[in-house]
Amino acid sequence: MHPPPRFAALLCLGMVAGCAVGPDYSKPRVELPEHFSAQTSKARQLGAANDDLAAWWNAFNDPILSQLINRALEQNLDLAQANARIEQARAGLGAANAALLPSATVNGQAARARQSLETPLGQVLNSDPSYNRYGSAYEANLNASWELDVFGGLRRGKEAAFADYQASQAGAIATRLAVVAQTADLYISIRGLQARLEIARHQVDTRQQLLTTIEHLNAKGLAAELQLNQTQGALNQAQASVPVLQAGIDTAMNALDVMLGKAPGTYSAQLTKLAPIPEVPGLSDMGAPADLLRRRPDLIVAERRLAASSARIGEAMSEYYPKLSVAALLGSATSVSSANLFSNGASQASAALGLRWRLFDFGRINAQIDLAKGQEAEALAAYRQSVLRACEDVESAVSARINREQQSTQLAQGESAYAKARATSFAAYEKGVVSLIEVLDADEHLLAASDGRAQAQTESARAAVATFKALGGGWQRDDSDARVVSKRAGTRMFFPDPGISKELQ
User: Are 142 and 163 contained in the same domain?
Assistant: First the structure.
């Protein structure tokens, strides 16, 4: 039976046109300011330019930090999970591509059977004196089938799978950036806590020396018992801060070891040797907010998920239309002997044109379309919110960096002044000009200024890390061929800017 000419013409026209039902995706526009509000002359005076945003951690000029980050990129288990998700998405894309192509199977069988004489068929056959209860059957066939994607449902499914694959790739880069930033943040926190611990221990030594002096004076009757008790209490207070800081260091080191994919305590010995808090690198050009749409992988993930949800609308709408398929069989079958299997008389062939149309299931199809549209609306809102939060991250990180730099400068000046005041007060106390309370008060102010300065330096460096992360630093996108290049891994990913509908058709 041949299909009607009009239907065949319509089928051919649809295949040639290559149209697909549903909306064609276009990247949404997001209103953004021309520049960051924190991008002022003061912000540009933070230091020299950092030209290599793809490997910003090298700008801290700390070999240990760079070494730890390289280990994290090689050993981190979150990255291993992200790479596994890429493989899963690649498999889904492969399945979507295969759905557009013909499929073929080869099957063959050889059977030997013994006919029962108690069945109606066996009784009839047994009436023949020459009947043999044993029989053989041989068959070999090549089956081929192809679903004709006339209305583009399969192509929309491929678009969705392709966008999901791209989202998984960008998600792996986002995980990479997070791992780098967290590793740097933990390392800087460790160095900051170690600096504070040294300040606290120095304060303990200073107050121990003061206590020794007061004890000597008390033994001679030159210092009251009250002064001795005050000095002892101040010493105990300073000693009490040491275990708290040490506990913080141990916690940060354990977290760093886990970040490196190792058991806690693996790299603790490497960090035991004291080192200064890394210097904050400069950043002269932050770019424009619109650059975040191309540079931040989490925004690429959100945009690709939006593209996938848009394609799934068309995939759901394609259920309104009939599904056409063609099938063919070519083979050979015989019950005589295997030698006759491929003879002319044993050959067999068939061809079929299939039609599947959900005529009385439109209510369920409508529900599926509404679901897909709702998911697209959700993805669009999530994308726009991600863009706004990305801008927020940059503004907050740069503001924290600027203000922490100013705080550190002021506290350094205050520390110097308090150090002079402490030396002056102690000398005056030895001469009997001032009381011990003034010496202890000077100690408290000096300790607070030194500890605050170390905290400000630490937070300034951490704010710099947060700034690089917020700007999407840690990878490089080569726009010459519209591909994303990861310097470390050497991987390339294709992220089309206008959408994927036309490129896949």
Answer: no
